[in-house]
Every structure is written in structure tokens, then in C-alpha cells.
UniProtKB/TrEMBL annotation:
Species this chain originates from: Trichinella zimbabwensis
GO molecular function: GTP binding; GTPase activity
Protein name: Ras-related protein Rab-18-B
UniProt superkingdom: Eukaryota
InterPro entries xref list: P-loop_NTPase (IPR027417), Rab (IPR050227), Small_GTP-bd (IPR005225), Small_GTPase (IPR001806)
KW Nucleotide-binding (keyword) present: yes
Matches recorded under Pfam families: Ras
Length: 250
């Protein structure tokens, strides 16, 4: 919340001055109530403006990979900090969450896509104009790892941003049935210029870190995104707030 302290001091001093000059207790009560109402409305106004302008960037991120690798579970863990058995996604699903990264509020538009071949005709739009795409495989399923090349090629074909950030996530590390080694996955990620982490949606291991690294990489990629609000406009709004404070309270 952004409130100019100088104006607040002037406001309280002005209110106190009125109280000292008002002998009637009813008038004192009315003055207090009126002054507090003004302050309350002003603070609410600043809160609303802050909420609208505090988002530094809005990013579109999609998830890709075979069915049953845990894409939906990862998103549920990240957005709701929950986990339960879920059915395969039918078509697409959409979630939204704002996170604090590098001292900035970043709003994430998250697209969960079906891993079945028959839904590709409806999921391709989710990869369009993505700032980042997360490719998920099950560390306990070699087949899901081998399918990654097809998912990457399909995402490149659909996405209009050629410099989008790619992340590889090996999920379900809580299970003791590993078929894909970390070395094998790391080599694949390096050869495809991808970030790489392993996670467990069930225990939450690595989930938060994965999103933080992805968002940082996107923000560090030139020409991939633009701030939501121009800094000059932000300063102009702040000056308008100060001017309004002075007109109301001084």
C-alpha cells in the first residue's frame, strides 16, 4: 500500500486542530468519524490502485507431456498447495497465480494440456505466444521420457515466440521405480537448451523452485516480454495520489 506520509501528518494535524476548536462532544465525534471515513476511502483507493499497478509482468506458461506424468498434480501443488489423485485432463485447463520474484509481482497464466494424441487439435492454441513451456515426464516411465522430442517439436511448431524458455521436469521422484537417471535427463536438457529440475507433486519437492527458476529465466530473456505498466505512467499515478491527498486533507 502506498500512502504519502507527509499528507497523512498534515491530515491528522488538521483534524486535531478542528477537535481542539470544537467544544461540542457530538461535533467532535462527527469530525472524527468524517475524518476517519476520508482516510479509509483514501487508503482503499490506494490499495485498489496498488493492486492494479503492482503486477510487473504477465506471463503465459503451458505444460506439455504424456498423460499420467503429473502435469495437473504439479499445477495443483503450485497453485493450491494440494495433492490428490486426478483424472487425465480432457482438452485443456487454465489456472492463474501471482508470485513474487526478484522483488516484483508476476502474474502467471498457466495452461494445463491433455497428453493424449486425440486432443492435439485443441491444445495447440495453448502453446501459441507462450513465454515458457514446461515439458514433464515421469522418472519412473522411460516411454514418457522418449516422447519428449515429439512434444518439443510440436510446441516449437505452435509457438509464435521463437525464444521461449523451455523447462524439463522429471516428476514422481517420491516413487522408488526410477527408469530415467538424472544424468540421462540432464544431458537431454542441455542438448535442447532447457532448464532441468526433478519434482514430486505429492511431497511438493522442487515444485516452487521450478516455477521460480522458470520465471527468473523468462524475465532475464530480452525481447520475450514487456512490463505491464510503463514506469513513467506508474510515477504519474503516484503524483496524482499525492496531489489528491493535498486537496482532500491540506
Amino acid at each position: 500500500m502506498h500512502v504519502n506520509l507527509t499528507c497523512l501528518y498534515k491530515f491528522f494535524f488538521h483534524t486535531l486542530h478542528k477537535l481542539l476548536k470544537t467544544p461540542d462532544s457530538c461535533a467532535i465525534g462527527w469530525t472524527c468519524q468524517f475524518s476517519i471515513s476520508l482516510l479509509y476511502e483514501k487508503v482503499n483507493l490506494n490499495c485498489m490502485k496498488m493492486n492494479e499497478s503492482s503486477v510487473f509482468a504477465e506471463l503465459k506458461i503451458s505444460f506439455a507431456g504424456d498423460s499420467f506424468v503429473g502435469k495437473t498434480s504439479i499445477l495443483k501443488r503450485f497453485t493450491e498447495n494440494g495433492f490428490d489423485s486426478v483424472r487425465p485432463t480432457i482438452g485443456v485447463d487454465y489456472l492463474c497465480k501471482t508470485m513474487f520474484v526478484n522483488g516484483k509481482h508476476v502474474k502467471l497464466h498457466l495452461w494445463d494440456t491433455a497428453g493424449l494424441e486425440r486432443f492435439k487439435s485443441t491444445t495447440h492454441v495453448c502453446y501459441r505466444s507462450c513465454h515458457g513451456i514446461v515439458f514433464v515426464y515421469d522418472v519412473n516411465c522411460q516411454k514418457s521420457f522418449q516422447s519428449l522430442k515429439q512434444w518439443i517439436e510440436y510446441a516449437k511448431l505452435c509457438n509464435t515466440k521463437s525464444n521461449f524458455v523451455k523447462m524439463l521436469i522429471g516428476n514422481k521422484v517420491d516413487l522408488d521405480e526410477r527408469e530415467v537417471t538424472e544424468e540421462e535427463a540432464a544431458k537431454f536438457a542441455w542438448s535442447n537448451s532447457m532448464l532441468y529440475l526433478e519434482t514430486s507433486a505429492k511431497t511438493s519437492k522442487g515444485v516452487q523452485m521450478a516455477f521460480e527458476e522458470l520465471v527468473r529465466k523468462i524475465l532475464d530473456t530480452p525481447d520475450l516480454w514487456t512490463p505491464c505498466v510503463d514506469e513513467n505512467k506508474r510515477r504519474l499515478h503516484e503524483m496524482e495520489d499525492v496531489s489528491m491527498c493535498e486537496r482532500l486533507w491540506c
